[in-house]
Amino acid sequence: MNTDNFLLELGTEELPPKLLQKLSNTLGTNLADQLTEHNLSYSKLELFSTPRRLAVLVRDLQLQQKDQVIERKGPSVVAPSNAIDGFVKSCGTSKENLDKKTFGKTDYYVFTKEQKGIKAIDLLENIVDTSIRKIPIARPMRWGDLDFSFVRPVHWLIMLLGTEIVPATIMGLKSGRVSRGLRFAKVNEITIDAAEKYQELMINKANIDVDFVSRKETIRNQIEAIALKQNATAVIDESLLEEVCSLVELPVAISGSFDNKFLSVPEEALISAMKSHQKYFHMVDVDGNLLPSFITVSNTRSRNMSLIIDGNERVIRPRLSDAEFFWLQDKTNTLESRLKKLDSVLFMKSLGSMADKVNRIESISKYIAELIGADSANCARAGLLSKSDLVSEMVGEFADLQGVMGGYYALNDGEDSAVALAISEHYKPRFAGDSLPVSDVGIAVAIADKIDTITGIYGMGLGPTGSKDPYALRRLALGLLRIMVEGELNINLKELISRSLELHLSVVDKNSNADIYNFMMDRLRSYYKDNQVSSKVFESVLVVRPESPHDFHLRIQALNEFIQKSASGSLIESNKRIANMLKEHNDINEFVDPGVFIEQAEKDLYEATLAVSSKIEDSTDYANNMLQLLNLKDAIDLFFEQVMVNVDDDKLRNARLSMLYWVRSLFLSVADVSYLS
Length: 677
Known about the structure:
Number of helices: 24
Structural class: alpha+beta
Distance between the termini: 48 Å
Radius of gyration: 35 Å
Shape: flat
CATH architecture of the largest domain: Orthogonal Bundle
Strand order of the largest sheet: 2-3-1-7-8
Number of strands: 18
């Protein structure tokens, strides 16, 4: 099979940095799907992206579709003549050229023809055009008077099959072999003479590494090298690194500094100003203290880099001055004095103001404090003040500092240190993989805040649907569950949901407990799936409806240990067999009368069950309970080998069913292991 390499490069205006990787991946996926749909094989796809281009290199693309034999089944040979004539006409042939084939017991006319495979070069225009058009774009742009739209205006198009230009016109662009370098470079046009030389030529002739991953690692290495020279450690946030990589084609990392006086401002505010506004990386000393310096990444090399450094230092100075001003200004008012302003801050329509929300958080925090042994007064106080920093100048400018600044302001106000810490950490976890609150008071307020939002919004019928989750309830629910599970908090989730619902306004459905609980369980299912827990194990526990996520987790752990034991397989199948038997009997007496038994095997099972029951009764050591239940294997196996349950004697049959009900109830005290079958 003849193959060659195919290169696609679409040149654009600067693409949105936070979308660059998504655009690149989607283009690659769409192109792969189109090639497969057109029966063109290849060995692999290589994706490239910079701020001004999306490119795909298809290795070893099949140059022509394979020839195909197309077969059309027509009417039966005994069909009316007009039906047969219509089929012949539609095939563009004569009746004599039709074959006959038997399907079932009937012969049918069949038209067969050989279709020549189409050359790849004749298919690629449509394949590429479709791949680009299928990229989902929330806000497409139009430019000039052209009837095209894309995320940004497009300027050039390369389509090469080996060394040959693929003739095509897409979005008004005629395909060629000329790419472009840096916007202001002397040599701005780069001729690509062969598809496989694309990456090499862009590096050698334009100093542009079009490989996103490689370019990102270059930036990382440059940043770390600069920090090492300054005996410091660069704090590299991966999301910021990806964003910076999406902003530059020729990365050159440089460092600058700022006045030491700004270090009197909370470091989070300084870091936020550097990261979110300027895309700078900050550095810390060996003790983890913020240094008055930063690293930025330029998109070009200059003969006089000091001018670029000086420019960046001038730009960051007013940002840090703003942070300093806000810090000093905010400290003149206490968090408590800001509570009145929360009345004018809407939490959500129908759920009241932020003042209403903190009152609910205060109430729930006190309730949770009693459950986890935290200081009730501190929990209530932290809950009440938890949102006061939302009306501060600092958070108004740097929204990502909410909670963090509240902690600093609480300490400045003379609040208890436990209250300050709780305010600073109650938003945690903010995102997947984020750390959890560590203090008891912080845990209480974090749970209260999250459950209030979940119950309020879900209770109004605004829960997530499909892939849409406009209020991020899934993230909140997962964070709440992580706190309970990983924090080993034995809190009744159903009771917590009910208490929270009762605090809301009448517009919230107070009877939505079950729906909210089921929603939370769906998030718990996702949590365990991400942690490689079998769906069967999860469903086995879910069916017994534990009310505490931590209790749920202990059962999951016990089942994971149980299924590793060799005897578990037999017990799982026995439970399934017992469950099926009991389905047919709804009036089973839970009392077991051993005096009725006549077979030794059933007497032995009764004694074994009695012994295990006495050891696990009222125990929540589920791992040990499952180990004890393993001791029933031999007795259960022997029972089913030697004893007939459904005998004619009603008294004996009921006694045997009651014992099996007892055996199954012992397993159900942990989970329904029949789901593991």
